[in-house]
Design brief:
20 strands, 24% helix, alpha+beta, 7-stranded mixed sheet, OB fold (Dihydrolipoamide Acetyltransferase, E2P), 3 domains, Dihydrolipoamide Transferase, 458 residues, 5-stranded antiparallel sheet, 9 helices, globular
C-alpha cells in the first residue's frame, strides 16, 4: 500500500508491476474503528498473476473503507483512510523498496478493460471524458495513420513510451507514433494519448474492421438447457494472452523425438539425492538445464522482438518459465539463472515453485522475467502438440509422454527397447527460420542422448 503525500492517511493501491493495471478485492481484513500497525495486512487482492495481501504503510485507526469485496480497483485508487494520530500506534513511514513493486517492467500482453469505471487518479481518465470501455472508444475513433516522418528521419524510429502507455494506445485504436509526448525527451504518457484521442476527429468505423469482429452467438437455450459460468480473472487473462500471442506472432511448430534412455538412467541415479533435499528429479528439471545450454548455443532463441523499433533484444540471462497446471488454470512461474544451477538444485526449486503455484502462494516476482518457456504434458498422456508462445518470448519447448519402442541398433545388429520422448518446439517465424529451429531441436535431442555432459553442470 502507498499513501497520498498530501494526506498520509489516504491509503492508495500501489503500482503492482509487470504492467498489471487492475486487481479484484477478495477480502477486507479491517473495519472502521480498527487500530492497525505498520505492515499489518489490510486487504487481499487477486491480480492476473497472483493472490496477495497488501500491508499498511502507516499505523493508526481506520476511519473509512473505500472498497468492497469483489470490486475491481486500479493503482492509485483510494482503498482506506487511516488516522495516523490515533494513540499507541506507530507513525507513518516512507515505504521501503520491498513494500511496492517497481513498475518499470518488460512489456506484457494487454489486460482487459476495467469492469467498472475506476476512480480518477494519476494518469487516469476522468469519467466525464472517457467512461466507455476501450472497445467502444476504438469504435468511435478512425483508423490511426502513422505519424509523418521528419526530414531525413528513418522509418521505424523509436517511440518513447512505457509498456502501459503503448498498450492503452492499442486498446483505444490510437497509433502511438502520431502522439506528441510531453514528458522528458518527448516521452509519451497516458495523458498525452488521451489528449490526442480527444482532439482526433471521430468518424464511423470502417466496414473492413467490423467484418473481422466475430458475430453474435446464437441463443443456445433454444436447443436445450444451458448454464452461464463467469470466467475467473486468471482464465480471462489466459484467454487474452493466448489470443494476443496467436494474433501477433506467426507460429511455427517443429516436432521431434529424442532417445531418453540414458537420461532416465541419470534421473534414476540421482533421484534419491534430490528427494533428500526436498525435490523431485523429473524429466522437466533435467530438460530445463539442457534448454538453458541450448539457448546459450543459439542466442536468437533467447530473445524478444521489439516490433516498434525492428530490434531483436538478445537476453544474456536464462530465466525459464515453466507452465504449471493448477486448479485455477495455467500459470507460468519463472526459475531464474537456470544456467548456474545443477539438476539437483533445479529439481528442488521446480518442486517448490510448482507446489506454491497449485496452492496459490506465488508472488508477483515469481512470474517476472522469463526468457524462454518449457511445458510438459507427458503426465497427461499427450504426445506431440502445438504449444503457444508465452509472449513476449520468442519460443517454447513442449514435452510429451515418453514411450518404450523397438529401435534398430547397428552395434547389436538387432532391435532393442528404447525410451523415446516426443518434443514440440514452437517459435516466432519473424525471428527464427525453419532451419534454425531444426538445428536448435537437433542440438537438444543430441544432448538428451548423452546427458552426462550437462547432468551436474554448475
Amino acid at each position: 500500500m502507498t499513501t497520498n503525500a498530501s494526506d498520509p492517511g489516504a491509503i492508495l493501491l500501489p503500482d503492482l508491476g509487470e504492467d498489471i493495471d487492475e486487481a479484484d478485492v477478495l477480502q477486507i481484513y479491517v473495519s472502521v474503528g480498527d487500530v492497525v500497525v505498520i505492515e499489518q495486512p489490510l486487504i487481499e487482492i487477486e491480480t492476473e498473476k497472483a493472490t496477495l495481501d497488501l500491508p499498511s504503510p502507516v499505523g493508526g485507526a481506520v476511519t473509512a473503507v473505500h472498497v468492497s469485496n469483489g470490486q475491481t480497483i486500479r493503482p492509485g485508487d483510494l482503498v482506506l483512510s487511516i488516522d495516523p494520530s490515533a494513540p499507541n500506534v506507530p507513525v507513518a513511514h516512507e515505504p521501503s523498496a520491498t513494500e511496492s513493486v517497481q513498475n518499470e517492467q518488460s512489456p506484457a500482453p494487454p489486460t482487459a478493460a476495467p469492469e467498472a469505471p475506476p476512480a480518477p487518479g494519476r494518469n487516469e481518465m476522468p469519467p466525464e471524458d472517457f467512461d466507455d470501455p476501450p472497445e467502444e472508444l476504438a469504435a468511435r475513433l478512425p483508423s490511426a495513420a502513422p505519424a509523418p516522418l521528419l526530414d531525413g528521419e528513418p522509418e521505424g524510429r523509436p517511440v518513447f513510451a512505457s509498456p502501459s502507455a503503448r498498450r492503452f494506445a492499442r486498446e483505444i485504436g490510437v497509433d502511438i507514433r502520431a502522439v506528441g509526448g510531453s514528458g522528458p525527451g518527448g516521452r509519451i504518457d497516458l495523458d498525452d494519448i488521451k489528449r490526442h484521442a480527444r482532439e482526433t476527429p471521430r468518424e464511423a468505423p470502417q466496414a473492413a474492421h467490423s467484418a473481422l469482429a466475430p458475430g453474435p452467438l446464437p441463443d443456445f437455450s433454444e436447443f436445450g438447457a444451458i448454464e452461464r459460468v463467469p470466467m475467473s480473472r486468471l482464465r480471462r487473462t489466459i484467454k487474452r494472452n493466448m489470443a494476443l500471442s496467436w494474433h501477433e506472432v506467426p507460429h511455427v511448430t517443429l516436432h521431434h523425438t529424442a532417445d531418453v534412455t540414458e537420461l532416465e538412467q541419470v534421473r534414476h541415479d540421482y533421484r534419491d539425492r534430490a528427494e533428500e533435499l526436498g525435490g523431485r528429479l523429473t524429466i522437466t528439471a533435467i530438460l530445463l538445464k539442457i534448454a538453458a545450454a541450448a539457448l546459450q548455443a543459439h542466442p536468437h532463441v533467447n530473445s524478444s522482438l521489439d516490433a516498434e523499433t525492428d530490434e531483436l533484444i538478445l537476453k544474456r540471462y536464462y530465466h525459464l518459465g515453466v507452465a504449471v497446471d493448477t486448479p485455477r488454470g495455467l500459470v507460468v512461474p519463472v526459475i531464474r539463472d537456470v544456467d548456474r544451477k545443477n539438476i539437483i538444485e533445479l529439481s528442488v526449486e521446480l518442486t517448490d515453485i510448482s507446489e506454491r503455484a497449485r496452492s496459490g502462494d506465488l508472488e508477483l516476482q515469481d512470474f517476472r522475467g522469463s526468457s524462454f518457456t518449457v511445458t510438459n504434458l507427458g503426465g497427461l498422456g499427450t504426445g506431440h502438440f502445438t504449444p503457444i508462445i508465452h509472449h513476449p518470448n520468442t519460443a517454447i519447448l513442449g514435452m510429451g509422454r515418453a514411450e518404450r519402442r523397438p529401435v534398430w541398433s547397428e552395434a547389436l545388429n538387432d532391435w532393442e527397447p528404447r525410451s523415446i520422448l516426443p518434443l514440440s518446439f514452437t517459435f516466432d517465424h519473424r525471428v527464427i527460420d525453419g532451419a534454425d529451429g531444426a538445428r536448435f531441436m537437433t542440438w537438444i535431442a543430441d544432448v538428451i542422448r548423452q546427458p552426462l555432459v550437462l547432468a551436474l553442470g554448475g
